[in-house]
Amino acid sequence: MLQTNMYVNGIGGREQRMNLWFDPAEDFHTYSILWNRHHLVFYVDQVAIRIHRNTPETRSMYPSEQPMYVFSSIWNGDGWATRGGLEKINWSGAPFVSTYEKFHVDACEWTDTSIVPPCATTTSKHWWDQHGAWSLSQSQKDSYAWATSKFMQYNYCTDKGRYAIPPPECMVGLD
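Structure for xyloglucan:xyloglucosyl transferase, as requested:
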């Protein structure tokens, strides 16, 4: 299972959990994030699994003009990642190991978090700021629909116990 969350100005609560369509222990896979002024997209093997668009309705919960941190780890998810504890972790498989290879970052580097670097402004200088990266192609939208309809296990947008009224970003479409 893969969980993503977004924190904007120290506020999170935007978890999504997805069962993967493969066994991640069998081989390495590519996990990517595209973040520009138009949207933030999480990918697994080039399939979009999470999209957060920057629109007038979502502006207050869109991470802009702040640095990004990426964390990856193995957590004991007995209480939250296993359908509320219904599925228990099989501890006989311990120790659990997470291995990474070919880690690559192609980004606007922030060395001083008190100053927004010039590369954070929208220009056509970087591939992520060019028109082709501003929205998903139809085939990417189709892959996203496939992945989320078949493998999404939890989505904060549909959790009426937490959010009687879905947050604004949940009401925004892909276009």
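Residues 138-151 form the longest helix (14 residues).
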